[in-house]
Each structure stands twice: as C-alpha cells, then as structure tokens.
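Input chain follows. Return structure tokens only.
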Amino acid sequence: MIKLQGYQAPQKVNLRVAIVEDNTTARMNLRSHLMSIDSFDIASYSNGKELRNGLRTSNFDAVFIDFHLGQAKNGVEWIQQLKETGLLKPSTGIFFITSDSLPQTIGQILDLYPDAIIIKPYTIKNLSTTVKHYLHARKHLLPALQYMDQKKEEHALEFLNEQLRKGISKRIESDFIKLKGRLLISAKRFDEATQLYSSILERSNGVLWAHWGLIKSEFFTGKWQHCKKMLDKLIEESLTKDKAYEWLASVEIGKKNYFLAEQLLDNIKDSELTIQATRLKTLCYKMQGKTEDAIALLEKKVQSNLSVKERLVDYAMELARYHLHLAEQFRESQQLCLKDEYADYVSSARVMLGKASRNINDRHAALQKDTMLALAFLLDNDLPRAERIIKETSEEHQFTKANVSTMIDAVKVWFGLGHKDKAKEILEKCDDQLLEQENHIESLIATDLVINIEKSLGLEKERALKVNEKGMKAYSNKKYAEALTYFYRAYSMFPGVPAFALNLLQCLTDAKQTEYKGITIDILILELSGLSLSDNNKKRMHAIKEKLALA
C-alpha cells in the first residue's frame, strides 16, 4: 500500500464553485439550481476576464462556464489561457454549458478533457445527476487531485493504480481511468497512455475522450502513421470532423507536407478557424512563401474580431509577428536595397502592436508585445531603444513563464544586440518548454521557430550537440519518449551526422517503435548504409540489426 505523502484528509468545507455566464438570468438560474443540489460557495462572473481576476485572489474546485460568452473570447479559449498561465488548478473540475452542438464547438470542448458537457436547455434533474456524479467521484479521487495541485503526478498515478487494482465501484471507474489517462500524458508516459486508451476503445469504440486521448498519445510518441489512420475515420463523424482536420494538418506539417496541410485546413471555414488553427494555416502559407495569403487571413481575423478585445490582441500580435518575419527575411537575404518595403513591414508590425497594446490587460500578453516591440526597434536599427525595452522586460519577468514564441523573439533581440550568451541561455530554456508542451499545435509552431532561429544564427551544430547530449541522458535513464524527442531534433537540425541517426535508430529499436514523426527504421538504415561509419559505429549498427532480426 502506498503512503499518501502530502495528502490531507478532507474536512467538511463547502466546495468553491465559479459560474461564468454572460446572460444574467441564466447565471442566476444556474446558481439557484446548484444551491439546491449542495451547499456550494458560489462566485458568479459574466465573462472570462472577471473569472481571471477572481482566480488571482481565490481558487475554485469547479468552474461552470458557458461556451459562448457574448462579444468576447469563448469558454474554451478562456480555460486554455487560464491553464497555460497557471491560474487554474489542475484539480479544478470543468463543466461546459452550451446550446451549440455544432461539431466545431463540441470538438473544441472535448479537446480540453472537461468533466462534463451540459447541453442547453437542460433539466434540473439532468444537471443534478451530472453534478452529484462529479461530487461522488471527486470524493474518491481527492488524494489524486491534491497530488496534482502539488505537482506530484507520480504520487497521483500510484494512488489511482492502487485503487483500480483493489477494485472500485463501476459507477466511478471511468472517472478514475479518464484521470489516469490525462496524468499519463502529462507525465509523458505516452506508451502507457496509448495502451490505456486502446483498451477502452476495444470495449467501446464510441468513447470520444478516449479517441482524442489516443490520438494525442500517438502524436507525441511520433507514431504518426497510425495516428493518421484514426483521424481519417474521425473525419467521417460530423461531431469530430473539424478537430480531426486540425490534427491531420498538424501531422502533415510535422512531416513538412505544407500544401497538403493547407488543403486539409481549407475544409474549415476561415470564420470558424480557432486562433491555433489560424496559426497552423499561417505557418503553411509561410513555409510555401504565400505571403499575400498569410497576411490576408490574419487581417481578416483582426477585422472580424475588432469588438472582441482579448481575441483581437491574439490576432493583432500574430499579424505583427508575420510582418516582422518578412522584415527579417529581407534583412537575411540582404535585399535592403528595397528599403521602402522593408520599412513598411516594420512599420506595419508596430501599428499592429499598438492596436494590441490598447486592449492588453494580461501580463503574459504584455511581455509578448514588449518583446516584439524591442525586435521591431532592432530591425529599425534603433538599438538603444531595443536594448532599453528588452532589459526592462527581462528584469521584470525573467521569461520564466513566457511561451516559446516570446522567448525566441527575446533570443533574436539579445543576439542582435551582441549579447550572445544571454541569447543562448534563453534558447536553452526553450528546450524545457518544448519538452513540457502538451498542446500539439503550440509544439509544432514552437519547434519550427526554434529550428529557424538556430539556422539563422548559425548555431545548428552547437545546438544539435547539446540536444543530443540531453537525449543521451534521457536514454540512459530509459526515458525513451523524451530521448526520441531530443534525438529527432539533433538528427533534423544537423543532417548527415552518423551518430545522430544511429542514436535515433537505437532508441527506436529499444523503445520497440517502428517510426518517429514519419522517420522509419527502414529509412534510417538505408540512410546509414550510404554514410561513412567509424569502426565503433559499424559495430553499433551491426548490433542494432541483430536486435531487430530477433524482434
């Protein structure tokens, strides 16, 4: 039996619940219904911004949030942001309420692993049944939930495994399994997560959360061929179609099939593209040199969200970043003879950053905006102002919780100002961020940004060696999923190095995996047969082939 280290026995306290609903009558009715179910301590908010402010002073055990929140970000966008910024506890129960059963809506909600989806109009009986089931399950899951809040995921998994071994009520068994799958993914134990979700789908193929869990596990394990087969089937289901197109596009982008990825995303209307799907499509355009299409899409999203301040900030900054990218391209290709066009890109970026700044009320967004502004001044050769801004932002934030996009912008600024060690230090931190990233779209975009900055700064070889070292350390500890991530990056970053290809091949063999992100064992063997190998590498290659023959 495990010792529940850090677990505190539950005391008789009312659960703190947040209601987020823009309709006053609906908000009051939901509050009244919940109070009739249990003695909750309830706080009510009309939008996600108010919830965010509330979370800065209070924690909640459960959040009931409407998908559509009037002229503002939707419920999914707010929950994503609050999770990313760490304001929402991992243990917080999430209940989505919506009258919209469109595939795009349900697909977005399911991607967040909610505890329940309540479809309007709901009956009091239906609401009561859903909430009482959650309370019953939560009571039994409480030790695991407390461990999650303490960032002791392994303890939480040990508790769940022990309870499942003992045998628990069929009524709450699926709640335990669902939480276990979520924790396995969070702990990067993707093979175990794959086995868990596969066993569920073998018993019942209609469990949507198991489908998405399996897809996510196999995507991050690099088993993209099987992942693609699953997604092809989900496209046929109306409820999951749009989200399946997003995932399929992600797979193709990972394999550098940008035109095919663009075609897949064309199946989703521009007006229904989420911010993440928009970033994916912009990346497709960028990699194909379709500048006009990229700018047109982002400008359309900016214009259509002028009344939605929080979403306007996201799209305005994406458009600003794209203009800065174009200016950087001019600079790198030494086309500064076209000074007017170069200046226009930098100026357009500053205009978008100004538009965003008037609506920013979040420190993470402010950091992102200030870092891009420093980059714009650097590209404009205003080095004193660029240095002043980047120093101020660094002193205040230290980039400890910045996203990779912001960190890469900071790397560009510090490097451009001649502070190469500072730039490399932040680049090192990006490795940790990439490893911890749980969102597949953010992972793809961030990886692309890191690879591009390494190339543009001439750091491919140096960084490939460091990443390979990290892979060796993970491999020696038999953390194959982590090792594969690093070995693949080293292999992709600096092609033609036998040691990198051999390390990737060795790790795939020991992990009993035939492919990683489209690179198969057969491809690696064929590539290595065409390279000049040292005697030591020849011995390694022979040993690997023997192991594969016995498998």
